[in-house]
User: Fold this.
Amino acid sequence: MNRLYKFVVPIVLAALTIAMQAHAPAAAQGIGRCGLRAGVVAGLERRYQEEQTALGLTAKGNLIEVFVSPSGSWTIIQTSPQGMSCIMAAGSRWAQRTWPPREEGPAA
Assistant:
């Protein structure tokens, strides 16, 4: 029985790894790719129909942006102050969370 596990488990793990990579979003395959921001954004819009939905600045002045498509694919890019953008992460099944408005009043 132990011999069977030593043989079967690596094969199953290898098959799962291959299957997961085959189903990864196309954008994820571009992680780490860099270019001028305009070109990166145009590629996300053209290939994946992703549009910017959120952005923020890091302490070092880099712009972080989240792009999401109607189908749920998403990409996060980071842009340097010089305009060079790199894909940092990408995936699928994006879900937007909404927060209720805060009540204004005296701080407790």
